Amino acid sequence: MRDYAGHVYVGDLERYGADGAEQRLLSRALTALAVRMVSGADPITAGGFVTDGHADQGIDAIALCKDPPQVYLVQAKWSDAGTATFDRKAAGELIVGLDYLDRELFSEFNARGEALGEAASELMVEGNAPVTLVIALMGEKPPDPDGVMPVLNNAIARFNQHGPRVGCRFLYARDFVRQVREDRAPEPIALNVTMRPWHQHDGMHMSYQGSVRVEDVASWSAKHGAGLFRANIRDPLGATRTNSGIVQSLIAEPGNFWYRNNGITILCDRIMPRPGSMQSPHNAPMQLTAENASIVNGAQTVTAIAEAMRTDPEVAAYATVGVRVIATNGASGFAEDVTKATNLQNSVEARDFIALDPVQGEIREDFAAELDKQYTVKRGTPDPSPESGCSIVEAAAALACLHPTASYSARLARSLDPLWERGERGAYDVLFDPRPPALQIWRAVTAVRAVRETLHATRSQREGRAAAVAQHGEYLIAHLVLKHLKVSQVIDEPSCRWDEDFLPRVADAVATLVPWLIHHADAEYGSDTQIRTILANTDQTRKLASLTLSSAESREKPPTLPVEYVRAERKPRRPNTVPYLVDANAISEGTALVYDSPVANEQAALAGWLAEDSRRSRATWVNSRTKPLLWEADQRQYSPSGLVREMWQLADWKQQPVANQGTTRWKVKGGESLWSMALRLQEAEEGIESTETT
């Protein structure tokens, strides 16, 4: 709707107040979208046909087409909840408006309607243009066949006494959703591929394989960017050890690159071959145009080639890489099989195959169309900022917390891998089938974030086993909060003031539930049983959740925690940050990190230098106890403090100090620094060691 809201009349909306103005604006945007769908007009022209407002006489838009002549009279019904309907009154008003036009009573309309009405009448009379009544409903319920349709049918019959001049068409919410998705779909890529040598594979799918110059591949990346990988199970992963190795191999020995690399696989709808020679085609280059092309294997190779060409183009240009181009001819099952089978160069995770599920693409489109937010699916795609969207990982975890059964959220205590399990016992199909609405997902995500922020803010109050419960039971606690606040009753209601009325209640709910959760965990399973062991048992988790919620509902005062569960003072010196994080396997290999210094004068000194090249502020985590940061700017590994010193020197910072704490300057997604992460995990671990020995 945002594509049309800027092109419709809004001069009368101030009188309706903020909420009323927004609803009318949405209705007018829906009207403009309906005009575009039936007439083919662009958004600006469609917005200019909207007449909705005072004295519109039941007609929200009068759209004119001259070739061939056609008049569309649109009446739109908007509903935030998708429940708009069309009744006898609305039908009568629309017929009255048509009657006014037929009788040339243009003065009955507002100024916009009067001008468009005169033009429509001229088109109807001189151009013999037929008229289509378009009823646009943001809902799915068809009109009453006994109450509404006779009104329309009788009127249409009356106007058609001397020939077919008036018709009727209904548009429903599903039609608008389909149109918005089509509008947002990326333009298909026609990729030009030049191979030498080459050969054509003799099989049921037209296919070519051969050697392609790496500078040609780099030009694909420069022209099409991430669009090259839209059918891949993941986007380029950035600076990983594998990708860094590809870059170094290409620059060091370009002549051997073809032998050492697995190559690139391209799927497309159709291949248009153009041999360089008619009589001796294999002695000349083969030029292919791959229509609607996507690289399904080799995304990391393409990215590394582009980086190598930026770093040392004269050397890298000597190299070639193996490329396969396969025409699928629309066989989606075949395309999916090839995509899965060929992705073996960088490690493939279960989550990567979920990217092929059409449901995830539909959710991404719903996020953009309905919420104006991003939803990232593929591993390697940068996660959006917290206020602008979320990733599939965050969404799936939030849906697990939203599920009526506690077992799904509790299973996440050890790993998020269960989220991607398919089949009878898997979580993925339970969480995403049927497809959850975008609004539900986003609200669940924000609720879980609020729980996590509350637990993080109060972590200094807990010690020992209490810290372990909050640490490993984070998702279970989020589930309990959502159940306790009866979120299922309001999460799908568009009228709910979620940010203002619901999220502020989360902190109090956490304060009530966590002591009860700790109390029942001790009472039922003993204070020497590991929390993760309890959460791994489905029956125990369900019982623990039921007892906790029941106690919270009783309105009793939450129990006072034992003194050994309450932090008295900070512990002495802790292990070094980097070795601890590596030994704890706290950060996955390939995780993106961002440089963000907490020191103001350092920020100011490096700001201009960092702005010159965005890669200077990005690194990737490598599980190395000494040099865990793979800097994107030069593809080399550093210690956190060593990389900060290197950056200071390259930026020529004159007032740089002698030493720095690099782990406070490099942060993971969500803004947590390496130092803060290690501190948080160590504090929770100390609680486990002191109270959960088995």
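Above is the first protein from milestone M3; the second protein from the same milestone is given next.
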Amino acid sequence: MNTTNTKQLFLFLLGVLLAGTVYGIRNDAAEQEGQRREGRVERSADLNFIKGNPQRAMAAYKRAYNRMNEMCSNERLNMEQRRKLFGDRSRLALKIARNYMLLQEPEQAVIYYKDVCDVNDTLLTVNDVCFYIDALRRLGDDQQAEIVARGFAFRQPYSNNQRYLNTLASLSDVQHYYGRGDADYRVNLLRLDTPLAEYWLGEWEGKPFYAVSRGRIQDPLKIYYHRTQFFSLYEGTVPEAFRLIPRELQSGPVAFSPDGKTMVATALVYRRTDRIVSTDSDAGLFVNQLYYSRYDDVRKRWSDFLPLFANQEGSSYGHPAFYDDGRSLLFSSDRAGGYGGMDLYETHWDPRQQQWSDPVNMGSDVNTEGDEIYPRVVGDALYFASNGMEGFGGYDIYRMSFINDVLVPGTLFHYLFPVNTVYNDFGIFFDGTEGYFISDRRGAAGKDDIYSFDNTISPLSSESAIGVSAEYSAMVGNLNLISGLGNSNTESFETEVRQSLIYPLPSAGDLLVSVYFDFNSSGLSDEARENLRNVVETMGFNDLNAISVIGYADEFGTEKYNLKLSRQRAMTVAEFLSDQGAKPVLYPEGRGKQKVPVSDFIEALQKKESRYPGLGHSEIKRSPMKLTFQEQIEVTRKARRVDVIVKKQM
């Protein structure tokens, strides 16, 4: 080939290369412009959604999503471009799935949740996985729901998150809870004249009222609601007081003090002004803020509404409920410094400053990494709903003793079916002989509905526990009631742990000795060793065939940890008895946490209060006295033990 031909070939190849480069640059620029255009479409959809036009918003989201699908199929994309585009598509799919859950369209939500699971399931939060499972169950696809749930079972943070564990367990336990025994009472769906979501029950002038949401958006976590209206429960009319609440404050629960002089209402605002929250957060799209008004007896009208607290922006404050004759208020909030999600808080009215005190978190006895909502005090008990405690799935209703404004540790009670189900059950309310609560147990057939029960047959409030037999409670492992409740169920603790006498020929079931352990320890003290030696040396001990060595732990710590610690304590005692020459076959067993009587905590509180006379007589409401952690450890000492018992023959 001559020089001229060589030069021409070189110029031709250079031209082809340059043309390809220019084409690639143009293609990259086109792709970038396409991504910017879809970003603008997404932002426009965000604005439409938060401004109340979800149909237009969802249509725009889908256009952006479909366009991203087309761009993902472009074979000219390099690996980095493809990775970014797939990431953007998954993020948008997750946003669409979440929004469809807000719009109560589970059939659409599962399509986009599946897309995220197939491509990048690390984007999913615990709430997302639970919502995905809930959507599948509402569509009747329990099998796929269980497949999805088990796919996350051994991953963090799911394996240690109680809300997820409740959801996983509920898939297999739905028949277990519903099919074992019958309660002594029934709950009934309250048929009202509206197909809307009924989500709140309160009291005004001695009569109950309920709230309905007319908004299409419904928070699956039951924290916020749109476009609320209030009606008398029995007459179906709108009470006059509610007509005076500004429209912007009729976006959630409203509470009145017992004397009718103070009102707390709820406003709904966007957590962000122009964008829906990021996909790596469990934070909701909207937040609640609380405002209060006081009735002026002289001017015969309500004052202007003022913020309950300063700096409520960025966090939710909701579900207000008065107690202590209106001087104190409970509410739920996800403000910073809590245990995770929505926690229960209390605040007290300061008559000197004419304002509410700074919120005080009610502590780990009732608050979890999940959500605690809808608190209410009735008598000496706090009622609330939680999706972060051990339960059936979703929100369940719980009760805890609340004596002298102090939560009594060890008194937490989880209600059985038919009050609690594998769906969301919350907002319990009592009106004399009638009781009510809210549930979405009808699934796709309904929204949040009010259910009633006859509170005279099996009182859920006052001093009686839930109306089920002791045998039924034992079967489902829920003997967690408060002691001293008359003929109702009793707690599975001993009223007095005793060092029993040692008989020459002990009978089956006799308690030979109980030995006690230090907090968070499985090591034997010198006193425990001496007591165990005495048992082995007692006449008749080595003539026994079998001994049960049963370990317990106190109520601090997780269920899993307490079970492990109780087993370690039982093994420690069994090994020591064996080393001392014990001839009976030893059967060590750990039974987890053991509760102590409520009276022990009350007695400790009374002793502590007696050392500080005059507390509580001040004009200003002060935070109630509580036991310190060390004092609680001392009270629960009798739960940290191992019982050595003559084994019964099976």
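Note on the second protein: Residues 20-27, 178-182, 462-505, 615-620 have pLDDT under 50 and may be disordered.
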